[in-house]
Automatic annotation (TrEMBL), chains A, B:
The keyword Repeat does not apply. Gene3D superfamilies: Electron Transport, Fmn-binding Protein, Chain A. PANTHER family: FLAVOREDOXIN, FLAVOREDOXIN-RELATED-RELATED. It comes from Acinetobacter pecorum. Its cofactor is FMN. Keywords: Flavoprotein. Residues 16-163 form the Flavin reductase like domain. InterPro entries: Flavin_Rdtase-like_dom (IPR002563), Flavoredoxin (IPR052174), Split_barrel_FMN-bd (IPR012349). This is Flavin reductase family protein. Belongs to the flavoredoxin family.
Amino acid sequence: MTNFHLQSVPLEKAYRLITHGPTVLVSAQDQQDTDVMAAAWACALEFSPAKVTVVLDKSTKTRNIIENSGYFALQIPTLKQLNMVYYLGTQSLYDVPEKMAQSGVELFHFPDADIPVVQGCAAWILCELIPEPHNQQMHDLFIGKVIAAYSDDRVFRDGHWHYHEVDEEWKSIHHVAGGHFYTIGNAVSIDAPES
Amino acid sequence: MTNFHLQSVPLEKAYRLITHGPTVLVSAQDQQDTDVMAAAWACALEFSPAKVTVVLDKSTKTRNIIENSGYFALQIPTLKQLNMVYYLGTQSLYDVPEKMAQSGVELFHFPDADIPVVQGCAAWILCELIPEPHNQQMHDLFIGKVIAAYSDDRVFRDGHWHYHEVDEEWKSIHHVAGGHFYTIGNAVSIDAPES
């Protein structure tokens, strides 16, 4: 880990990393395989203990790996990574064994964590799967308990995103359909005390 | 309904209304009460039959009304509605009986639907609750089957958002924390066929 901009995010503020609704990358590894996929349907579920949901289709190898390993990471990619995100979200490791190499994704690990994570993202949320067979089978819905969270302090620090102060290439991307996305836009605030 | 810009959205494209992760308004009515709240944790769950999830805290009257009535609407507010959204999201009908009047919200109904919806939004997703006691009690997680969807064709038409062609006041808002939000930003596309 040679990026000196990485900083830990308190678990009780981890929800702020995805409450604005970005498309995320989901990464995981088991004893055989490592995979990363894109997911537009990820969401915070609880403040404390911090939890998240993510919808993982049965056609994805990442889902199978998470079922085997019990761990996954959600990470917030940036506009600079758009082509890689699209590739990771449209190619399956089941069909393309060389997917990881073809995508150009570079992985690393945070200290004391076996979950592979993606270089160059804006934030990372490490999760332990809370097994819920009904939700997983019936709804493709996976629930994770957040066990650690990190951000790149150039774009998220002091508990807040600073998207409005950085170059466009740092912006989060928000999927619509097919190859169509929006970046996050301008900061707007209510003149009221912070809750 | 005097807004001639309202158009029906095919159910199989309803997911596109929230896949970009906006903060939504949740509306519902039972035989006693009508309430509208804001929710940042809403997400698409399935393409077809279209389904959505939304996290509804036990402290909200809206949740109680949905449990009674079995129906709710998610709607995508615009930047123009920011102050109203914040008020609806921070005041509870349990504490403020005059919340609806104070908020300035104006409600209407789509044809053949008993669910009250909010004037001036960019899109509306009418849902029938799929009762899941475990998810509701354990996770505050509510699942809705989409029974109808509509948009204002000035900002969503032909299956796509046109945020990049409209005034800033039409933009979706994306909550971070407290009174802090981002608007949606610029359209970016991959040069690939649409899936």
